[in-house]
Every structure is written in C-alpha cells, then in structure tokens.
C-alpha cells in the first residue's frame, strides 16, 4: 500500500503557464504564471485595464490565447506541447474541460425569450444530457437557494437586476461546475440589491467546495470569501497573499495606493 508521502501531489485546478494575451498591438497579459488549487477561492484585484476580466474570459475560452498554456486539472485547455510544437487541443477536449467551468457575468446574459426555469435547465439538459425531470428538480432547489422559489415562470424582463443576477448564479450552479468564475457580478446593480447578491455568493462559498476565481471591486466581499488575493497591474501579478496580509499590510506600494483609492471611494 502506498503511504501518503508516496502519493502524487494533486494537480492545480487551474494553471496559467507563460500566458500572453494581445488585442491587436496592445499586450494585456504578459508572462502570466499562477496556479489555483482545488476548492481555493481566489480574488483578482487591480485597476481597470489590468487584465482581470481577460483572465476569466481566457479560462472560459471566450478569448483566444496569444501565447502560453492554460491547464485545467493538468489537462491543456487551448494549446498543448506536441513533438516540441505548440498546437491546439481538439475541440472535443476543450468542450469536455469547459463544461466543468461556470461563469457569472456582469450583465446577467439570460435568454429573454425563456422563463427563469427554462434558462436554468437549458444547458444541463442539452450540454450535460441530464434528464429533464432531474434538471427541473435541481432548478427548484437552486431557486430556493438564491431566494427566488416563486419566479420559475417569470421572464428575465419582469425581474429586477438583482433578481436576474441571482438567476444567473443559479444557472451557473445548475451545471455543477468544478470552477466558478465571477466577473464583477455586482457592478451593474443598484447599491441596495448588491448585499443580497453577495450574500448568495457567500452562502455558495460556505456550503460548497467549488473553486472560485473572482473579479470584484467589493473589497469586503473579497476579504470575507477569499483564501488568496492577487493584485494585478500592467498585465502581471505584482502581489499574491492571504486577504489579511493584502488588506492590512501589502508588500507593494502599488497595492497600497490602489487599495487606498478603492476603499476611499467605497
């Protein structure tokens, strides 16, 4: 029997290796290297244009990768090394990996022609092949979790922004993701409903072991739910530490200035 010391170390759930992303001639991310462990909740902070949302969109394969590699559980997501060359992975492999990733966007992205229930069950049925009855049962459970059990037959246009975002969270969770990406999920909301949406996400963090990669300007939320906070500036991670260290004793002067400005505005 192998001893614990003989066991192979667990692969990071997400790994960025020498990642570069350009838009036309502008380099947004350069020589980006980091890993995220299973069940870890990591928040990306930094000024606008520092590449935070681009990182999420690369993991979701919504943006192309200019250079480098991204791995999900050790498997290449977009490109791999084969015979000494950097070549694209198969579409099948990419799809298998992305079905394990959920994303909640700033602008909700619900289908306006579908009811709340239909929005939630669409992907589990047609992407994961889940039985419709099981998908409906799961949708009801999730709507209860996000505090909207009576909105199954409503259309998105009949809901407030905060309600739409909670439906979007339920829709992402319906895919039973291994990784949940959160992209400024409160930035399009009125201030009075931000608390409700953040409480839903706090509950998700407290009651599941899903790995979270978060972009937010809600510093109190980042401090509460994160295991680690990474500060980006100029397309690079300039500091990475636990929330207590980042928010009370950051090592970099740039981090201090950014947090001072954000917390002053808040």
Automatic annotation (TrEMBL):
Keywords: Amino-acid transport, ATP-binding, Cell membrane, Membrane, Nucleotide-binding, Transport. Its main location: membrane. It is a peripheral membrane protein. It comes from the Bacteria. GO terms for molecular function: ABC-type amino acid transporter activity; ATP binding; ATP hydrolysis activity. InterPro entries: AAA+_ATPase, ABC_ATPase_HisP-typ, ABC_transporter-like_ATP-bd, ABC_transporter-like_CS, MetN_ABC_transporter-like, P-loop_NTPase. Residues 14-259 form the ABC transporter domain. It is found in: Cell membrane. It holds the Pfam family ABC_tran. One of its GO terms (cellular component) is plasma membrane. Belongs to the ABC transporter superfamily. This is Amino acid ABC transporter ATP-binding protein (PAAT family). It comes from Enteractinococcus coprophilus.
């Amino acid at each position: 029997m192998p001893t614990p010391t003989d066991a192979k170390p667990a692969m990071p759930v997400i790994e960025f290796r020498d990642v570069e992303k350009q838009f036309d001639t502008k380099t947004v991310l350069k020589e980006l290297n980091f890993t995220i462990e299973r069940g870890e909740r990591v928040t990306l902070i930094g000024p606008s244009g520092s590449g935070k949302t681009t990182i999420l969109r690369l993991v979701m394969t919504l943006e192309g990768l200019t250079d480098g590699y991204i791995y999900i559980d050790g498997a290449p997501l977009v490109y791999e090394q084969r015979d000494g060359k950097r070549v694209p992975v198969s579409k099948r492999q990419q799809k298998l990996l992305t079905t394990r990733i959920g994303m909640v966007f700033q602008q909700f992205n619900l289908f306006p022609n579908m009811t709340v229930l239909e929005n939630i069950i669409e992907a589990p049925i047609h992407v994961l092949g889940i039985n419709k009855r099981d998908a409906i049962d799961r949708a009801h459970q999730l709507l209860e979790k996000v505090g909207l059990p009576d909105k199954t037959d409503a259309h998105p246009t009949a809901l407030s922004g905060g309600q739409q975002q909670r439906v979007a969270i339920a829709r992402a969770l319906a895919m039973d993701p291994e990784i949940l990406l959160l992209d400024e999920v409160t930035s399009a909301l009125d201030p009075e409903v931000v608390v409700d949406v953040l409480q839903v996400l706090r509950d998700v963090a407290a009651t599941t072991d899903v790995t979270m990669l978060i972009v937010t300007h809600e510093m109190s939320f980042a401090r509460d739910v994160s295991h680690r906070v990474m500060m980006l500036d100029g397309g690079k991670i300039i500091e990475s530490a636990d929330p207590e260290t980042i928010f009370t004793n950051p090592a970099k002067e740039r981090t201090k200035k950014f947090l001072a400005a954000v917390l002053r505005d808040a």
